[in-house]
């Protein structure tokens, strides 16, 4: 199991970057969503996995579902100010998130249901797919309390899968042009790095869960990828150690 042979990167300013898997999958971004205060994890997740997430991200664990699904990554997007959920979420799930986090939680009533694959946000801004109309953008801005930049990367609309960000940094799909990277930089107010996860997967959101306290990466992420991601989220220093 990945938890028995972690390779971790400890940064001078930020916390460690830790390899991880969930349900024996390195695609951890599908199952977990985090900000600085809370980590949303699937209901019924093994206690050992939940404890590891809490130890790295250092936020309160919230066991949740959206539309009865454990696919929290594609169906939610959050920063430290609010949570946007897919229109597939039911009222009980939304009320539970509001009660447990005390945050603003709003449903995005769009035909595009995979909001987490289409939006990436931190506390400075959000980059969103250009498939969203003005009404949807207003809901995102009101809920997350940030300005929204609509865009594509290359010809792709899956901005949330192609950009992973915290308040410390961001990584983007390698096909991002200089103009794309500059748009992410201006909107999120961080310095993005082109990167891959899990041994060359360019859709970085599939293998990334992070906040300003720690970062989890898919268990197949390799040494060169770790160094690039470490640089993206801590410009000062990266140290390798056995966990």
Question: What can be said about this structure in brief?
Answer:
This protein is an alpha/beta fold and 243 residues long.
Uncertain segments are 1-14, 235-243
What is the end-to-end distance? 14 Å
The outline comes out as globular
Mean pLDDT: 91
Number of domains: 1
* CATH fold field value: L-arginine/glycine Amidinotransferase, Chain A
Characteristic key phrases:
L-arginine/glycine Amidinotransferase, Chain A, 5-stranded mixed β-sheet, 3-stranded mixed β-sheet, 8 helices, 17 strands, globular
Descriptive account of the structure:
With 243 residues, the protein is an alpha/beta fold. It has one domain (2-242): L-arginine/glycine Amidinotransferase, Chain A (5-stranded Propeller), CATH 3.75.10.10. 28% of the residues lie in helices and 27% in strands. It is built from 8 helices and 17 strands. It has helices at 47-57, 72-75, 91-101, 115-118, 134-144, 159-162, 178-188, 223-233, and strands at residues 7-11, 17-20, 33-34, 38-42, 60-64, 76-78, 82-86, 104-108, 119-121, 126-129, 148-151, 163-165, 170-172, 192-194, 208-210, 215-218, 238-242. A 5-stranded mixed beta sheet has the order 15-16-2-1-17, sandwiched between helices. Strands 3-4-5 form a 3-stranded mixed beta sheet. It is globular and about 40 Å long. The two termini are 14 Å apart.
């Amino acid at each position: 199991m990945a938890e028995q042979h972690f390779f971790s990167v400890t940064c001078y300013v930020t916390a460690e970057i830790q390899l991880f898997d969930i349900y024996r999958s390195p695609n951890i971004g599908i199952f977990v969503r985090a900000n600085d205060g809370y980590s949303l994890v699937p209901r019924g997740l093994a206690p050992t996995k939940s404890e590891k997430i809490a130890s790295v991200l250092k936020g309160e664990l919230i066991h949740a579902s959206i539309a009865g699904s454990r696919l929290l990554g594609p169906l939610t997007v959050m920063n430290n100010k609010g949570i946007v959920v897919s229109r597939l979420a039911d009222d009980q799930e939304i009320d539970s998130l509001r009660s447990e986090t005390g945050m603003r939680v709003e449903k995005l009533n769009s035909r595009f249901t995979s909001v987490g694959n289409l939006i990436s946000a931190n506390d400075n801004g959000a980059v969103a797919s250009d498939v969203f109309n003005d009404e949807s953008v207003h809901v995102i801005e009101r809920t997350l309390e940030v300005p929204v930049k609509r865009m594509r990367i290359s010809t792709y609309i899956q901005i949330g899968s192609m950009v992973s960000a915290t308040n410390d940094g961001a990584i983007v799909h390698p096909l991002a042009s200089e103009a794309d990277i500059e748009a992410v930089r201006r909107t999120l107010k961080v310095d993005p790095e082109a990167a891959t996860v899990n041994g060359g997967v360019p859709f970085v959101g599939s293998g990334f869960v992070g906040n300003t306290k720690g970062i989890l990466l898919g268990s197949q992420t390799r040494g060169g990828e770790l160094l690039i991601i470490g640089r993206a989220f801590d410009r000062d220093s990266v140290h390798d150690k056995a966990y």
